[in-house]
């Protein structure tokens, strides 16, 4: 039996072949389900909008690869002018480097022998930057790089309100910069200041206030480092929700948004104001496999095709339909009247609540332009979480 992932000797079934989810040139109606779909026009508009925002403020764009884990996406972001990309994990960077992305910021602390060895190996091939927030981790990083004779740029991660990783005080930031200056194979490049909590505040005004608080905190760290003799060439951070504020701050030199390219369901519910308009570009295609009542339809997509930690999917373009539950392999859709209920075999486009973990559930994304499959892009870094 042959699937797209493995071969196994199963006697009679050996000749069964799992057909591809779609072929280039197929119409959208012919795509098998569940399928992750990318609307190419909306996606390209989103890429251009964020690139234009960054350029209008003279800051660099370094989109986050963890949002999609798909090298074809990253190549298009870089072709439009992005400086490079971000990855959250060392292993995640591998398919991107293989695809030719040569400038990657690991927006995270790297701790553990295997990861450091892999990082040191990759640093000999690509230009890597890494975050640190502890002297012991920094020493281990320097030693691993020394063994491989490779080097990285280092950003001191500072906590500007996210309450995740990052040094807590100016003195800790300066002490780390001092240590970087003394150690081989590591070069101080600046700070990472990411405030995830500010990204998803619903109202434009609340988000602005949260971003401003973070910007002020980041500026304090940058200033303390400058007074100690360390100029921050790079001040990297931001995300889709606060990019408009961070870009204009005069503090950040580099933006790290990821979700902007896809505009998932959660981000779609935010107030955006006039500054930037982003469109839903990523959808989950499902088929109605059962219509047990006059108002209820059941789709063949579930938690194995979309995650629900940021809310249930929305049904695109169908005001009268609402997802009410997502089981392992089923999605319950309720209509507000029998005439609005989809029929057996009908296909619906869902907007997943959160793009990052949803991409991570799929081997490939089916790229659609004008209702026709234009390409199928592998999500090569899916599952690479080490
Ligand atoms: C360090 C870091 N930078 C950037 C981002 C991108 O955020 P978003 O996808 O909301 O644009 C994230 C997301 O969690 C992150 O953890």
The gross shape turns out to be: globular
End-to-end separation: 31 Å
Portion in strands = 15-25%
Total helix count?
11
Which percent range fits the helix content? 25-40%
Total domain count = 2
CATH topology of the largest domain: TIM Barrel
Under CATH at level 1, the class of the largest domain stands as Alpha Beta
Number of strands: 17
Q: Bound compounds, please? A: pyridoxal-5'-phosphate
- Radius of gyration, whole Å: 23 Å
Give a short account of the largest sheet. 9 strands, mixed
Average pLDDT, to the nearest integer?
A: 96
What structural class do helix, strand and pairing data support? alpha/beta
| CATH superfamily membership of the largest domain | Alanine racemase
- Poorly predicted runs of 5 or more residues: none
Supply the CATH architecture of the largest domain. Answer: Alpha-Beta Barrel
What is the string of SSEs from the N terminus onward? EHEHEHEHEHEHEHHEHEHEEEEEEHEE
Q: Could you please describe the fold and organization of this structure?
A:
It is built from 11 helices and 17 strands. The chain is an alpha/beta fold and about 375 residues long. It has 2 domains: about 20-40 and about 280-380, Beta Barrel (Lyase, Ornithine Decarboxylase, Chain A, domain 1), CATH 2.40.37.20; about 40-265, TIM Barrel (Alpha-Beta Barrel), CATH 3.20.20.10. The strands form 2 sheets. Strands 1, 10, 11, 12, 13, 14, 15, 16 and 17 form a 9-stranded mixed sheet that branches. The chain has an 8-stranded parallel sheet with strand order 2-9-8-7-6-5-4-3. Helix 4 (about 115-125) packs across helix 5 (about 135-150) and helix 6 (about 170-180) crosses helix 8. Bound molecules: pyridoxal-5'-phosphate. Pyridoxal-5'-phosphate (PLP) binds near residues 64, 196, 258 and 259.
